[in-house]
Amino acid sequence: MNKEYIVGLLEKNERIDGRKLDSYRKITVENGVSKNAEGSARVKIGDTEVIAGVKMDVGEPYFDSQDKGVLIMGAELSPLSSEDFEPGPPSTQAVELARVVDRGIRESNSIDMKKLCIKKKEKVWMVFIDIYIVNADGNLLDAAALASIAALKNAKFPEYDEKNERVKYGELSKKSLPLDKLPIACTLYKIGNKIVADVSNEEEKIVDARLTVTMTEEGIHGMQKGGDKTLSIKEIDEMVKIAEARTKELRELL
Amino acid sequence: MAYTKRLDGRKFDEMREIEGKVGVVKNADGSAMFKFGDTVAIAAVYGPKDLYPRFMQNPKKGKLRCYYDMISFSVNERKRPGPDRRSNEIGLVTEKSLTPVLSLENYPNAVVDVFVQIVQANAGTRCAGICAASLALADAGLDMKDLVCAVSAGVVDGKVLIDIDKYEEDVEGMTDIPIAILPRTGEVSLLQLDGKVNREELKEALELVKKVSKKIHNAQKKALQEKFK
């Protein structure tokens, strides 16, 4: 499939799979897909499949936030999921993915980090979110962000043995994480002079620029521009408008 | 105290519920999932494709490369993501266990990459990975002489148990013996052992694995047939 063909279709406001420019492929969210995680979820957007898992531990707080818990986010673009990914330490693309999802959650104060404090300066809950791509067919970021929030929503604190200062893994309490707002990421892509949502792999290869917008009901909490070309202010405004509508729909899937 | 009963009520020669499925990773040339109870492995095959760097190419035969990885939340205490010494070794033994069934001489200058990912772990992950990988190779349509059936045997107090789970693995005095069998010939392509057994016990374990490998083979065949229904 060549660039001219895809761009030619877009000129007529058509896409290779017959979708509208600003619509997503079929999305499914499945919660609690892992027995050993404190929370987990599988998200499919078309043929893109992502799993996210939450693990928790008790540790020391960071020096500059002694009454707050710790959030650590990781992502692996596993070589199992695509020919384009190689084994080894996380690539720049994986690091960017994790950091953009992380910022969305952090900046929206989605988790009340103060409620993760057990004893100020000494002991706090640490929340690890790990994202694994199972099959990569474009728009990984939106799928990863959605899976992360679903996994956080699904998570329960493990039991904690105060006396021996040990987390009793495998024994989950009934207590959910202190989640407030739900940040949702929506990425818009510019191909030629058209703006499209939820690109497939074939479309993603010819993307000129992209913009990820992470939103809660209250507004925009995170943005990340990518791609080699520029975006005009008008285009950014249009992208945000689409993101507002799409994130609202995505939130309803949780 | 002698080991007379299994905690989950299984018979000594009874595996956990097994299940295979092919085509779980669409991007891959071949892929499969294999389950032993709560242990879930997925495998994806990419290739045969040209091997680079070029000086590594062999005009007489292709190369098989296997990678094993546990996802961070597959276990109770979070595993630090990425490769470590254990996963390197398991990647290697997976490679060795699958090589005998592949006709790599049909793929000169090429490489076949197999990626195994443990999605959920309750012991026996390398065996689940090998079962899934051999299914994925078949799904990719590679020239193969046989499938590979792997399962772990345990020996404790002179008793041989099949497909030990995490709880059993941690029982004092348990010897863990992961074994892979080529079902058509009964040959062994993986054999590792941690613990202490005598010759009779080892033989019993091998025979027992050979016996139950038929069930694994059937589950694998079923999974492949399911795809072409």
Write a brief caption for the model.
The complex is a heterodimer of chains A (254) and B (229). By secondary structure, chain A is of the alpha+beta class.
Estimated share of beta-strand residues of chain B: 25-35%
Largest interface: A-B, 32 and 31 residues
What is the overall number of helices of chain B?
4
Provide the spatial order of strands within the biggest beta sheet of chain B. Answer: 1-2-3-5-4
Number of domains of chain B: 1
CATH architecture group name of chain B: 2-Layer Sandwich
Mean pLDDT of chain A: 95
Query: How many DSSP E strands of chain A?
Result: 12
What best-fitting shape of chain B do the alpha-carbon axes yield? Answer: globular
Separation, N- and C-terminal Cα atoms of chain B: 51 Å
Could you state the order of secondary-structure elements of chain B as H and E? EEEEHEHEEHEEH
Separation of the first and last Cα atoms of chain A: 35 Å
Radius of gyration of chain A: 19 Å
Q: Find the structural class of chain A using helix and strand composition.
A: alpha+beta
* CATH fold category name of chain B: Ribosomal Protein S5, domain 2
- CATH structural class of chain A: Alpha Beta
- Main sheet characteristics of chain A: 6 strands, mixed
Name the structural class of chain B: alpha+beta
Q: Which percent range describes the beta-strand content of chain A?
A: 35-45%
Q: Please, how many helices of chain A?
A: 5
